[in-house]
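To the wet lab folks,

You asked to see what we're planning to order before we commit. Fair enough. Below is the target structure as tokens, and below that is the sequence we designed to fit it. If anything looks off to you, flag it before the synthesis order goes out.
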């Protein structure tokens, strides 16, 4: 991961939720390497250190001192999406995001000494499946389950914004890392030479390397002009077919075995239709306007960089 500069200004103590996930783990490591003090908000006391705080967002439980003395909060917690969606799973996906955000935002608003910034998780699923349309942060939301969830998720930050806290809504794309996420699941298949496009392969994939995603969050922490939604994606989205071809080339393996759409729909139902077979062609307008420089602006460069870190 490209090192972020040690900060001399900006937030000093950062509270992080979702710190044990793929993005959160990398973020916490980079924050500490950059000189920040990190306070993790954990849902379990297992593995907690003296600087961590245990909370239970499902029960609305947040210790009064959890956010005291923080200069910034990064909220990444939420139930995974990549499973077949039952009614219970959809409820968990929505409530784990919306309720936890409401709890944090209300607590921030009540603080006597408020943090300077809240970076709140969201996703480019906000836009729904939009075909070939180019999307930026001003584009309208979609109408499917994920889009509706993202709208509520972002709206839940209102108490913090109303209290005068700078809020950045992190509309995250497909984060590339061999340690997890979409790439982590695809690698074993592609390394066997059994990879290929999904469905038609025409759906767009707005991706970002894990390294650039973490650097973008650190950039948002200290860039006062950043506020509101920000697409955390690289500037060069690709179709799913191009993604498969590029990953095959990087791995020096064939990648021409398509996965039929009906198979995915049988296995995953609505989740497949809303994620695997759908797409967004999103651009990082906010990041670029705020002078963020991507270390990995092209897919092939990002894949080669991330796979070099594959343990």
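Sequence we intend to order:
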């Amino acid at each position: 991961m490209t090192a972020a500069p040690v900060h001399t200004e900006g937030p000093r103590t950062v509270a992080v939720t979702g710190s044990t996930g793929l993005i959160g783990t990398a973020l916490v490591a980079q924050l500490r390497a950059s000189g920040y003090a990190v306070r993790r908000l954990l849902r379990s006391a297992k593995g907690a250190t003296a600087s961590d705080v245990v909370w239970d967002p499902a029960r609305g439980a947040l210790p009064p001192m959890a956010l005291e003395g923080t200069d910034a909060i990064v909220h990444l917690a939420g139930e995974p999406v990549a499973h077949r969606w039952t009614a219970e799973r959809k409820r968990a996906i929505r409530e784990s995001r919306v309720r936890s955000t409401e709890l944090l935002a209300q607590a921030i608003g009540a603080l006597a000494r408020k943090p300077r910034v809240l970076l709140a998780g969201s996703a480019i699923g906000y836009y729904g499946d939009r075909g070939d349309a180019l999307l930026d942060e001003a584009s309208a939301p979609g109408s499917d389950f994920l889009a509706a969830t993202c709208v509520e998720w972002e709206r839940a930050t209102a108490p913090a914004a109303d209290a005068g806290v700078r809020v950045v809504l992190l509309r995250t794309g497909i984060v590339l890392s061999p340690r997890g996420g979409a790439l982590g699941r695809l690698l074993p298949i592609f390394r066997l030479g059994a990879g290929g496009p999904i469905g038609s392969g025409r759906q767009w994939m707005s991706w970002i390397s894990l390294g650039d995603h973490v650097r973008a969050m650190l950039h948002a922490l200290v860039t006062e002009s950043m506020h509101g939604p920000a697409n955390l994606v690289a500037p060069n989205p690709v179709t799913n077919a191009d993604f498969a071809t590029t990953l095959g080339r990087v791995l020096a393996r064939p990648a021409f075995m398509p996965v039929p759409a009906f198979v995915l729909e049988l296995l995953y139902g609505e989740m497949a239709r809303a994620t695997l077979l759908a797409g967004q062609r999103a651009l990082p307008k906010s990041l670029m306007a705020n002078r963020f420089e991507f270390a990995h602006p092209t897919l092939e460069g990002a894949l080669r960089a991330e796979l070099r870190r594959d343990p």
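Structural context that might help your review: Residues 87-110 form the longest helix (24 residues). Residues 1-8 have pLDDT under 50 and may be disordered.

Thanks,
Computational group
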